[in-house]
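Table S4 entry, G-protein coupled receptors family 1 profile domain-containing protein.
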Amino acid sequence: PQTSLLIALQFLLLNWLFLSPALFSQPDENATFLSWMFTLIPPYISIISALGFVLNVFVLLVFCLHKKPYTVAEIYLCNLAAADLFLTCFLPLWAVNVYNKFQWTLGKQFCKAFYVGIFMNAYCSIYFLALVSVDRYFALVHPLSHETLRTPFHARISCLVVWILGFLLSIPSLIYRDVKRSHGCILNYQNSTAPVSIESNIFIFSFIIPIIIISLCTISILRALSKRSKSVNVKKSKTKTTSLILSVLLAFLICWIPYFLTQILDVFRENKILTDPVFIYGLEICKQIFPCLAVFNSVLNPCLYVLVGKRFRRKVKELFSQQNEKRSAITGFVSTRTYLTTSVRT
């Protein structure tokens, strides 16, 4: 029932985003939308950038300063927070670009760096979620047979591979992004067949493959949890991390799936497969709205860690307790030293 509800909510959200009359009505009826976009998006992106930076730094500090060793899932979530932080550092460039009405004024190198940073975040995030899904699958479905694979060492190696893969998938932006007068920072492919082949390969490796992995693992996890629901001990010990990961996964899908779909539709538009002017106008609007939804995920993840993650909340409390103990120890040391110094002088 929970899976059906989540699917239904996601279906309704996507239908609203894609089929809303406000987005797909005639251009002359939406002429004022672009002016509002130039007014609203820059401050929105600036707020998301500031909040995302502060919240993800907080998450990383909690994970890094806590004395207890990382679990495998925490290593993946820590890298996910690092990817979100990496994204928020590039968001101010987007705000400036929209404020300038998409006339890129920051040079070719910043153009390439901005899109590499944005796409690396998306690609690395989805593969980190694939890794935590696989980890939860082994922990709940095969808790004993694959225990040797679920080690912090293997988790760190996997994260390194994901960062490298994310950069490799972003290479087209590094090579083909260019600044064109009156067009801004765009993909400038050298031949007409390149966009379809490149974007199709990227879509398969950055979205289809990890989504298949995540879906299969999630279905198996939910089945395992339903079978073990009668065992109170298993439920309490195993579902704390799993509930957090499923929440983060759902948030990512809701925030990023519309963006990935518009990217594919935009490739069809560029290759004259989609030619309806009303649809194209709506697609152009979606290309500005859906990235705003996608980057909101970088703020949403740290909030989910606090609201859903019981282990994370406990880490925060323990970290503050450690800091208070250090302050008390330092204060006591200073007080004792002051007392001894005063005693010797008198």
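The CA atoms of residues 177 and 186 lie 6 Å apart.
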